[in-house]
Design a protein that fits this description.
This protein is about 35% helix and about 20% strand. By secondary structure, it is an alpha+beta fold. The protein has a seven-stranded mixed beta sheet. Strands 10-11-9-12-8-14-13 form a seven-stranded mixed beta sheet.
Length: about 1000
Amino acid sequence: MSEEFEVLDTPIKSESDKKEYKVIKLKNELVACLISDPSKISQGDDLPQLINENGTDDNEKSKSSEEKKAAAMLCIGVGSFSDPKDIQGMAHFLEHMVFMGSEKYPTENDFSSFVTKRGGTYNAFTMEERTCFFFDCLEKHLKETLDRFAQFFIAPLLDKEAMTRERQAVDSEFQMATVSDWCRREQLFVSLAKDDSPVNTFTYGNLKTLKDNIEDDKLHQAVHEFRERHYSAHRMTLAVQTRLSMQDIQDLVLECFSSVPNNSIPKDDFSFAVDTFDTPEFNRIYYIKPIDETIEMYLKWSVPPLYHKYKTKTLWYLGNVIGDESKGSLLSYLKKRVWATDLCFCADENSIYSIATCSINLTEEGSKHLFDIIDAVFSYINLVRKLGPQEYLFDDLKSISDNSFKFSTEVPAQYTVLRLEEPMHRYPPEHFLTGDNIHYEFDPDEIKTATDHLVPDKVNISIINKNLPDGLKFSKVEPWFRAEYIDLPITDDLKLKWDNIEPYDEFEIPAPNPYLTKDFDLLPEEANHPEYPQKIVSTDKYELWYRKDQKFKLPFANYNIYLISPLFIESPKNSALTELLTSLISFTLNEETYAANKANLYSYIYFYDKGITITVQGYNEKLPVLMDVIGNYIVNLMDYITEKMFLELKEQALKEQYNMIRSPYSLACDTHNKILINHNWTPIEKYNALLDLTYEDLLGYIDNYRKELYAKVLVQGNVTLDVATNAVQSFINVLQFDPLPEDKYPQTVVAKFPIGEKCLYLQSFNKQDSNSVVENYYQVGTYSLRDTVISDLLMLMMQEPSFDILRTKEQLGYSVFCSNRKTEGVLMFNISVTSQAHKFTTEHVDSRIEAFMKHSQKILEDTTDTDFQQIKNDYIKTKECVDLQLSEEFNKNWTEIYENTYMFDRAAKEVATAKEITLDEFRNWWDKHNHFGSRENFRKLSLQVEGHVQETNDDAKDETKDDTRVDELYGKPISLIYLGNNEENKKDDPEYYIEDIYEFREKLDSYPPKLLTRGP
């Protein structure tokens, strides 16, 4: 043992994992997992310790394209379970505060600025018993970034004035969560725990807990005391990954983290709370009114803690049996009656409890059979109990998990370190990588014990529905999220019935999985292998692009088939019908493909833009078989659907569209796209079309949609040319369509925003949502590679200052970001802010965004040639980051094919272009595209959606509103609510506000149409 550290056991790793691992315990007892990636560092790519202070390379030689990012994660063994009862949300608040400067780096946004400007990202999250911080960055900046990161835990400032501002951000985060039905339901659930339990707490924190209920001096003192008590090195784990040598990583970690203080105080002991849900409130039925249009059922059982019994994966085994979706399953039974669309059986575990949850998404018909559904759940559980643990099922799961681990794909460094967040606190070092993934031991006694807890006496039932059974009324309100609910006892008669209900004749436990892969052999490598996909088939029906994998060397393949027709986007009705069609295919197909999905053969069918995409991916051996199954279901869909099924899935589609309409952010984005794109149909338009849709409409559409199609196909992976061509040809033959004439290929026309500013000011449809959204779009023009690179550099320069000014300093809202957007060949950039209606008007937020844009002028004026060269260098290295797995490379290539651009070497061309751009060119470009420059090409559209001011918790009373729907819009035609033409909003420019998006778009000029053509 060294004086500075102790070496612990080395983690067991996958055969396909080329990285080296070493676990050490520092003298302050911080445990660190060091991960050295042996990939070759690019020629001329200096190691972190050889970088100048300004971040520029000592030796700018020609680079290869094999760049990778470095990453680090630090996790502390404290979370919201340790919140003081009088300052709830403390752990989450402290997580925010440590970002805001340290004694060594006192500038408030030093870390975020440093990371963001250097091509990195960062974030943090707080859980029940852990708080996790993480970042990634370009490797040459790792040393400086890691030093700044370590100061979070050595000597953070936790400045009092910064606290008074940052609690506004915490409150904004909470306000955004108040319209999440998941958050509302979970808050009610934890309130069922014993009053003195750490589980029964409000984890978010808001202005009530961090301002109104506590003096600033006391809060400031309490935050420091909480940090000193809990942020101790002996409760910290660290993971760092980079391409440095193991010795260099070790030296870096010791240098940066040896000074983290250790108070040696044991962590909080929660053993007293092990029976936290043994309360009268738990074993009841709760009816909860949702925000969204949704009907859901949750059955939860509190079982003895299994947190440290990870080798048997007991709840995972039960989840795979009870949550099965194949023939004879519980879900199959419910879907045949069109009572449900989805079912999941999962577990939530920590040191206090394990919660087993059966969640079911119900149809309207299902809402009329609530107790029939609960009967079915207990009938199936009784079957599982009666038959007992089945070793063949465990063996299937073990085989799948063993192969998944053996053939693990490489992931970005940030994801690698994040995957160690919980394992490093839960498992011994040798199982850091395997503990979550491997089924070690079959323990039938433990499975039986857990199954015996899934009984009526221990169940908590929640039903999420706006409509209550006759005679009931929402009578209670959860105090934090204001969720309305009513709770009823589970009668002894019901418990007796569920205890003794026999397994239904239709039920059977899963059969051995027929899709388990047997052949994992890799294809032999070939000389002169093409770098990019090649078009190997071109007919009037389809084009097939293909590339055999010789880089990732794993037994995987990806197939994408894109079916194109102008019929899909001809009208809102056709667009709604196409989405409904893909839902019906997936609904009927699922029973057949579920076993394949469990065996890591995945399939997806979805409608997007101009067509229907069929994706199959996973182990290559049986993918052609899966494609044949999908093709036959598509062609024979009429044999599987009924009018009842149509009506229920139509209702689900209505709810999905309606929920998007009620989201302020979605409303802003969707109306923007409506103005921009000729064939874009908004959720409002599709919702209105769905209202009148009939079963006959669907049948007629099914008869017609496959008559004329054109398909674009990409196949990549461990698959031969013959297998790829035969599988695709077979699929095309099964679909039996005629070729789509080229003059019928869909054309996209993008509107050109007028010079100057326009504003679309809308009212949010959700009266319970205080969140407002401002999305400012600045249209650049027809896409060119040079414009895109300049815009990318601009966003890289603006991202951190926009966050620092608009969020951290001005506290306009929790969500602030800027980004580039390419839409059908037209480039724009945008700045987005989500705020709350009771804090700021959208007009004020827009004015502050423009003030920031003016500030950006000064940022550019102050930028030196050296600064700009550093930004370009970091941008180039980011673009040169290598694809780590087949799916990354595949998705990039697919985007080129799908978007009809075919620039497979895009990244290399962006790098070459970036090297040519000068600071003067960059400034001139910016001058043309903003309000405070020459305005030569300043085209701005501000999308503003105003939220609704809510009663504060102090104003609101713990009583329900009248027992009607949250609004009366659902089920009726909907139109946009324009606010710009209100008298109080009049501007000097009478045409500033858009009063009708359809009339506005009709008056706009358009860019040249983007034609969909066959690939070169």
